[in-house]
Amino acid sequence: MFLAIDFQSDIPIYIQLKQQIIAGIARGELKEGEELPSVRQLAQDIGINLHTVNKAYNLLKDDGFILMDRRKGALINSLENMADEDFKFRLREEINPLIAQAFCKGMTEEELLLEIGEIYRSYSQGVKR
Amino acid sequence: MFLAIDFQSDIPIYIQLKQQIIAGIARGELKEGEELPSVRQLAQDIGINLHTVNKAYNLLKDDGFILMDRRKGALINSLENMADEDFKFRLREEINPLIAQAFCKGMTEEELLLEIGEIYRSYSQGVKR
Amino acid sequence: MFLAIDFQSDIPIYIQLKQQIIAGIARGELKEGEELPSVRQLAQDIGINLHTVNKAYNLLKDDGFILMDRRKGALINSLENMADEDFKFRLREEINPLIAQAFCKGMTEEELLLEIGEIYRSYSQGVKR
Amino acid sequence: MFLAIDFQSDIPIYIQLKQQIIAGIARGELKEGEELPSVRQLAQDIGINLHTVNKAYNLLKDDGFILMDRRKGALINSLENMADEDFKFRLREEINPLIAQAFCKGMTEEELLLEIGEIYRSYSQGVKR
DNA sequence: GTGGTCTAGACCACG
DNA sequence: GTGGTCTAGACCACT
């Protein structure tokens, strides 16, 4: 799997890393049960510190995307039925300001939903459900 | 207008302030040409630092949501046709990871668009277009 | 408040720190809304690294014992009605092996409950409820 | 006897193993003089490293729960009157932070003792004393 | 001033 | 070999 980290971005590296791995799962490139590289390995590959990778892995673990197995390291978790109310609430909280902005800038509902549907399908096409 | 700042949030106060003001515009509570409180006034009302309010105002100015007038202070700008390609690009960049996450957690496209449409209409209802 | 860290203990420093602060709250020495020292300050006082203090604070935040206020730093949170089912489940998980051990070693239920009641009251005496 | 090891737990496998065996003794499933599986056998059954089982057995031996016999392997020891002052001291040390936490979260003494009594009796019912 | 991020290097516990 | 802990020192964002 290819991880593109932008060192000039104002988004922290460990957040980018987390997002890229989630995107990898969404695209179906990382499948349930698959092992992620060790923190040391990945840190070396990307050219960053192992603590930064570690932080990303821990966030992914806390959010249920991966499991930390004592024998095998980090494993992709099952991605079924995890959209509980708590997740949806946080999603709304995060997405809300973006929608307010889009509305102010004059985007219509149709335009917005079209954009989002496109992004969604860029993921759903790669994965059988 | 009511500004709800969460001092425990991991979102910086000046960003929250910016988002809340945009939401106010989106809800139609702040109309074109209307004056925002002075930096000093707002800082005192909320109980935060001058610089923090200043930063938020400057961001809003940079994004075209307000105009800074030497005599009248900050004025709400017109909200027409500002969704240029650059804005849409940044919107996609920001919304993309959220959608990947929603997809991984098992949300269907319908569910997602329904949620977003609801949020959108919570704004569009208050404003005549 | 006095924090006694045992550097020889096999319990990690940040865990000891977390436990000591919880004990401080339980004894009523740290009251709701009170400010904790900054990570740098406390780290210097105890003679440890600020990252170690930071880790303890973050755990306390995750467990709801403190709030991280953007203006005031770390604040003791309200300690009302936080014993939800999730907490009780984790408590049982952690306490279970200790009880199994006590049972195997021949402690009677009375003996055990007496010990625990004593510890509990060592906390409840200092706080009005 | 059924040993449920959680490879995702933050508790080391050898500690889990120790706890599970003690729980087995407490439930009366493992009786005095009974033989435990050989280190090799158990390691293979659970799918873990030899060293890990070895470590657990050695801890159990140190704590007096089993005897290591050169010919018969590991034998369950008698569980009489082993709750010396040293054990009680360590028990208090370990259980204290949990109680402080429960107190902070608002559990009453009655609630706590009820929970603990329940766990205790889940063991004492299976064993004649 | 604060906490957050990132780096670097060390040691240890675990498997 | 792995991840977990701790240290040390740096820079930056925030208030």
Automatic annotation (TrEMBL), chains A, B, C, D:
It holds the Pfam family GntR. Keywords: DNA-binding, Transcription, Transcription regulation. InterPro entries: Tscrpt_reg_HTH_GntR, WH-like_DNA-bd_sf, WH_DNA-bd_sf. The keyword Metal-binding does not apply. It comes from Syntrophomonas wolfei subsp. wolfei (strain DSM 2245B / Goettingen). This is Transcriptional regulator, GntR family. CDD domains: WHTH_GntR. It comes from the Bacteria. Residues 11-79 form the HTH gntR-type domain.
